[in-house]
Amino acid sequence: MLFHGLLFAAIGLAFRPSQGRKRTRQVNSLGAIPYLVLVATTPHPTVTYVILNWRMHQLGGERYCREQLRQFAAAGLLELHDGKGQDRREKQVRLTSSGRSELRRLRDLLASLDTEEPSAQPA
Question: What's 2-115's CATH class?
Answer without folding.
Answer: mainly alpha
